[in-house]
Give the backbone structure.
Amino acid sequence: MSGWRAPGYTESKELGSGGSGRVVLAFHDATSTPVAIKYLSDELRADQEFLQEFRAEAQLLGGLDTPYVVSLYEYVEGPGGAAIVMELVDGIALRALLRQEGATGPEPALVVLKGSLLGLAAAHRTGVVHRDYKPENVLVAADGSSKLVDFGIALRSGTKGAVAGTPAYMAPEQWNGRPASPAADVYAATATFYECLTGRKPFGGENFAELAVQHIEAPVPLEQVPEPVRELVRRGMAKDPAQRPADAAAFVAELEVIAGSAYGDDWEERGQRRLAALAAMLPLLFPSAGPAAGTVDLATTLVRRGGRHLTRQGMLAAVGGLVLAGLLTFAAVASGEGPRQTTANWTGETTRATPRGTSDAPGTAAPPGSPSPGQSPSPSQSVSPSASAGATDVTATPTAPTPTTTASASASASVTTTPTASPSTSTTPPVIVSEVSLTSLAQTGAFGASATIRVNTGDKRPVTVTVTWYTSDAKGELGTSDGAQTFTRNGSTSYTFTANHTFPRGGGCYYGAVATTDPPAGNGSSWQQILTRQCVIT
């Protein structure tokens, strides 16, 4: 990568990197708003097709207005580089959570599926197909909410592009090179839902050929899927796209009926609390935590252009799933691409996004951070984007469809992008929480427990403390979450308070509690566990 940096931002640390570029945590100089900046690598920027795709990704992001997809702040391009500036989600990739914790259980899995399906639905309404839905591209925030990221290989619905996607989640028609359709996103989302429910992918082929056969021909193994949601999995992963819900919005409607019937009206609240508790156990993976790993896992996105193979982060140049076309008679790989925009002839000037409501005339772009007229500033502290359209755990990714960028092929080649958000003009650095300590945990009554929590902060502004309760039959293991309580404290720099909880009759032999804060504390979190009086361990 060159030393070029998006002007107007100060970088803090790298969140992830790969063959297609890198993602960094940065702060907007004028407002101190935290953002995630995705830089395209120098090698891919020199390839006009990849550069055009990068611009298109920014266009897609700018065209989506939904809390379930990471927001675009601005697109920046100059002689030295290209960058997408996005909302920073302080969360972790679903992949990291699954790797650490395994199956989430039905209600959290339904919450993840619904949130990301709502993100897909926003894309589908604009005629865009994501094509790479997978756990790496779903972020779980500290409050248990989720966002969909990385539209790096998205296509217009009905476009017959190259075979692309992540093999473990690709719909049968994707393997066969058929035109992009929302039903393929429904399939991938259901495959991810299956993994949340069971802790494993639907099919375990060891190579591309095996996976292709399994996704195209093999029945979905439903034995490990909880019975109440088997119909969701069966419908969502039907081999024939015509037998699946037509798009993400239709699938959400089915999900809500089944979830409410099987788990009650408050299933979503319980599922989100459980997700928040699982995420809280991995505090060091949050962008707001300590140094990032700076690398990403092996990418699995497959890309082919005509007769030449291109690589996105970590791909095997001539081997990948595209060679599969020559190995499997049923995998018809399309070498043609859908319609593309004409690339503008760029001059040496830097092109920046123009916040909505400002003049598009050259030289009149509003300064970064200017809010749109009638639009309140939105300092979001959520999202880690991904450095490649391929795969990653440690990073998050931008997301969005619908063109809102116009490029002029004239000598001046001005570009204006209409973002859906801009860095806030009123953001201040968050309060520093130096430490959170769960100083004591004691049983109260037959099924109750009381925890004492101490929090030290750098100033007197508000801090949120979450105490998550657990039951377990094993010493040293948190076990199953039994809900959480949230407390807000302000006006001092040191707080000590008590949280009480009643566990269900017949719960585990051990009670546990985890204390976390927002903003995150310097020590991450604190927890204790006690052996209850009703159990005797010999």
